Structure formats: structure tokens, C-alpha cells
Amino acid sequence: MLCCLYVDLHFILLCSLSGDVQIVRELVTNLLTVLFINVFSVHCLGFSNLFILILQHIEDLTQEKFSLQRALEASHTLAESLAAENSSLTDSYNQQRSIVNRLKSDMESLQEEIKAQLDGAQDVVELWPAMQ
């Protein structure tokens, strides 16, 4: 019974983390019903011992819930930080790509200009003997 109680309480905790209040209410109601029906069949534990164990287990689950919430908040903070860093790196990459594209364009223009000057020089070299 305690094993089932643990599983049920753990499931209730997970549902409460998701924020589904209706499911949590139904689960708690069902769990309490089962507890009240089976509490008199527990011979080795007195009611007060069982109640103390349940309270301790609820406390443990509550602490686990808060721990999971803190971990979730830390995860969200990390995700936001990574998203900001990704955005910054993307902007930097785009700026560098723009610079590289501009330099490529400048280099192509200079290559065309050099080719034109070489063609002009070649013409002068070919005409030079005739001009002498």
C-alpha cells in the first residue's frame, strides 16, 4: 500500500508541477478514498504512524517539487542566455559575411581593373616597335 501511495503522491506532485488543478483534485480525492478504505487494514502500523509517514512523504515530495522548480528556473535562465548569445553570434556572423562579400566585390573590381591595365600595356608593347 505504501508503494502505491508513493507512486500516487509522486504522480500528484508531477501533475501539480504541470499546473493541471482538476487532475490533481481528482487524484487527491481518489488517493484519500483509498487511504480511508485501507487504513483499517493496516495492522503493523498504527494510524498515527501511518499519518506521520504520509506527512513526511508529502514534505519530501514538496521539497523535491521546489528543487525541480529551481532547476527549471535555472534551465530557463540558461536557455535565455544561450538564445541571447546565439543571437549575438548570428549578428556578428552576418556582419562578417557582409564585410567578406564587400571585400570579394572590391577584389573582383580590382582584378578587372588590373586586367584592363594589362591589356592596355600589352597593346603598348605590341605597338612600341612600330612607333620607333
Automatic annotation (TrEMBL):
The chain crosses the membrane at residues 35-55. Keywords: Coiled coil, Membrane, Transmembrane, Transmembrane helix. It comes from the Eukaryota. GO terms for biological process: regulation of growth. Residues 93-120 form a coiled coil. InterPro entries: BLISTER. This is Protein BLISTER-like. It comes from Gossypium hirsutum. The gene is LOC107907737.
